[in-house]
């Protein structure tokens, strides 16, 4: 059976994780968040975790080969699932190219990329609010600024990359969680 592989694309705090969790449950897909994979490595103090921790705490991006190596190890373990929802990856053009590279990611075909579009002031507000709730070490005002800047500099170019592949679908992320989810479900149901 052909897998349905979706990329959740959007700024930090745009709601990718929240939506991805609900989508995974409804459509029986595997939610893969590279941020969560890194947090797992960090909490287990693995060599990879120790290497990534400093970069993550500063709001930087972990090098592409390390990130995609970790992702690859994770997805080969779940290769028999119905499909993946990628949350927080790819974040650079190089990562998108690596994901498309059939020698690295055997048989993986990205079906669609859902772009959760949220205005910038809203993004900053949401992340700072999340910091209070989740107490994430990388949600301080300085790191939030770095992460938002990284998003514009390194991740935004992916919009054109996926537009060219006719895979990009824009979703209005400024609505409440239920409305965003309902828009996403309409898209998935039409695929
Ligand atoms: P997230 O939970 O997706 O916001 O990720 C938390 C942090 O993990 C990011 O700010 C980065 O430092 C790191 N990270 C997560 N995914 C990636 C990725 N695809 N490439 C590089 N760094 C990543």
Features:
alpha/beta, 5-stranded parallel sheet, 9 helices, 191 residues, binds adenosine monophosphate, Rossmann fold
How is this structure best described in words?
With 191 residues, this protein is α/β, with parallel strands linked by helices. The chain has one domain: P-loop containing nucleotide triphosphate hydrolases (Rossmann fold), CATH 3.40.50.300. 55% of the residues lie in helices and 12% in strands. It contains 9 helices and 5 strands, in the order βαβαααβαβαααβα. A 5-stranded parallel β-sheet has the order 2-3-1-4-5, sandwiched between helices. Helix 1 crosses helix 9, helix 4 packs parallel to helix 5 and helix 6 crosses helix 7. The longest helix is centred in the middle third of the chain and has 15 residues. It is globular. It starts with 5 loop residues before the first strand and ends with a helix. The relative contact order is 0.20. Bound molecules: adenosine monophosphate (AMP). Adenosine monophosphate binds next to helix 2 and helix 3. Adenosine monophosphate (AMP) binds next to helix 2 and helix 3.
Task: Compose a concise summary of this entry.
The chain is α/β, with parallel strands linked by helices and 191 residues long.
């Amino acid at each position: 059976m052909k897998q349905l592989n979706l990329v959740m694309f959007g700024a930090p705090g745009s709601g990718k994780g929240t939506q991805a969790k609900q989508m995974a449950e409804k459509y029986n897909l595997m939610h893969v968040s590279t941020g969560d994979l890194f947090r797992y490595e960090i909490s287990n103090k693995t060599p990879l975790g120790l290497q990534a921790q400093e970069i993550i705490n500063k709001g930087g991006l972990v090098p592409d080969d390390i990130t995609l190596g970790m992702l690859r190890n994770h997805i080969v373990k779940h290769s028999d699932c119905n499909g993946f929802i990628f949350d927080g990856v790819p974040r650079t053009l190089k990562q998108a190219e690596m994901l498309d590279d059939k020698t690295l990611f055997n048989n993986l075909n990205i079906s669609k990329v859902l772009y959760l579009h949220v205005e910038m002031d809203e993004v900053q507000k949401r992340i700072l609010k999340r910091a209070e709730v989740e107490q994430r070490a990388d949600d301080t005002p300085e790191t939030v600024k770095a992460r938002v800047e990284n998003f514009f500099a390194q991740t935004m170019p992916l919009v054109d990359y996926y537009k060219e592949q006719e895979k990009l679908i824009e979703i209005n992320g400024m609505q409440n969680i239920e409305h965003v989810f309902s828009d996403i479900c309409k898209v998935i149901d039409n695929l």
